[in-house]
Design a protein that fits this description.
CATH topology of the largest domain: TIM Barrel
Strand content: 15-25%
Strand order of the largest sheet: 5-6-7-8-9-10-11-12
Radius of gyration: 27 Å
Number of strands: 12
CATH architecture of the largest domain: Alpha-Beta Barrel
Number of helices: 9
Helix content: 25-40%
Amino acid sequence: MVTTTQDEDHVPRITGTLRAHSIQVPEVIYQAKGMVIMGRRIKSIVFSTDVAIIRNCNADAVLAVYPFTPQQAISQAVISAAVSPVFVGVGGGTTRGMRSVVIAQDAEAQGAFAVVVNSPMSNSNIRLIRRVIDIPIIATIATGDEDVQARLDAGVTILNVAAGSKTAEVVRNIRKDFPTVPIIAPGGRTDESIQETIQAGANSIVYTPPSNAHIFGDMMAEYRQLKTKNPEFHFRTSDTSRDAVHDFFELFHGTHAGADANLDPNPSRGDDRSK
């Protein structure tokens, strides 16, 4: 069933019974200015390669990087499942050189909105990638002493600041020297830390969602609690109620019965010439 509500700003919020259970990014993220990539305004970015999480999260984009060598099969799966722009990791540490160049080219062909290179990747390698793709290159900044200008000169478009507990500080320092460069950064797990990262100068916030195991754990705990309180409790949904199932089978049987009525297993021949 589709329902419509309005928030404090009188913005209609439309959802369904089944899709109501989803991952919502923290509202505080929308205080960020965001950035526009290929016509899409992006303020929130979910950090995940889990297609079930990606498919059921309202983030504006997906950061698909993982601690293994990049594989085209993985990027294709994520891009196919996502309903929002995907930023694909193409290496930088273990994977580099021409392999990263080829993976970046493939990612663009698959529909990625940007490619992400990790901190160890050389500037010469970034220049090679820049020569073969037209989408943005996002470079990860892991510490405060990296040469940002050299990265930008090599062809980097966006900075991804991932400096752990010092992320907001590094963002603030970069913003002082580069007031217009686009920056994405994780905001931490609290509204206060997200606000601090935004105020430091991050355009968009990277959000790490809870894992499937964590979500399932909470769900199963709720189910067990319901069963404990009421042993006779039976889980029912709107599409599996007794009346709905009965109506379905009655309609199904009636439809096929009407069709079967026209099928005579021993049809008589009107022009039987044996008479």
